[in-house]
Amino acid sequence: MNINLELYKVFYYVAKNESITRAANELAISQPAISKSIKTLENQINTSLFVRKRDGVTLTEAGETIYKKIKEAIDLIDSAENDLKVLTNMESGTINIGASKTIIHEYLMPYIKSFHKKYPKITIRIFTDKTKDLIKKAKMELIDIIFTNLPYNLPNDFKEIKLIDLHDCLVANSNFEYLKGKKISKKELENLPLLILTKGATTRIRLDDYCVENNINIKPEMEFGSNTLIKEFTEAGFGIGMLTEEHIKKELENGTLFKLDIELPLKEKYLGLVFNEDNKSLVAKNFINYINERK
Length: 295
Description:
Layout: H1 5-17, H2 20-27, H3 31-45, E1 50-53, E2 56-59, H4 61-88, E3 94-99, H5 101-118, E4 123-127, H6 131-139, E5 145-150, E6 158-165, E7 168-172, E8 194-197, H7 202-213, E9 222-224, H8 227-235, E10 240-244, H9 249-254, E11 258-259, E12 270-276, H10 282-294
Parallel strand pairs: 3-4, 3-5, 8-9, 8-10
Antiparallel strand pairs: 1-2, 5-12, 6-12, 7-10, 7-11
């Protein structure tokens, strides 16, 4: 039986109000239109649904039977609409973000703070791991958004948004004051006590490619799993750290660290926001828009 669902909606409001007049007011529809809809529905199911009285209407036995089912359906629809409204208004939900500790501290934290202040009822989960592992979790829909250094060989169903350009540099503390202002050649990289990321990291791959192209054989003093550790050990004077200039502005400005005078024309690098296009999270989409509007 192919019946217009709007007819059942009209039936529901008339039955609930026990009045065509009150139903018309609630639905903002004329009384004749309400009466016509009820008549059409009764004709289509070949059953009388209401008994007309001077002060309103009451349900017939058939009407009572249908009303119970229709009320359940309307309640479910209302509940779904309320749930959607809560999500749309960001009054509930969860967002799962993946990023390195360095990106969180040096770039993402202000955005997370302001987002949480604006939407305090949204639960924020942070995952810190290597990019390849974060992407695996995003493919499994365990993570909604990844902040990472790009370019990166992303899966076909992943999309990226460029946020800011990044520039690698070599920095040191006052223990290496003798290098301050000195022009350093590419070949001298081989003799520097470098503090760099372990092999496999995006920045390390770019450095290794540069060294191969220029026939340079570096011997790192120490290797680390995060830029945060490189910065700490560089500040402590263990060696020359390879860090992202945009992430150490404060240290460069206050003189805790200084840049070495050496060109590192590495391939393009930028901070990007990455997400799986198949992810249906409304909260994630709103967070992406939030970042886009403020980047």
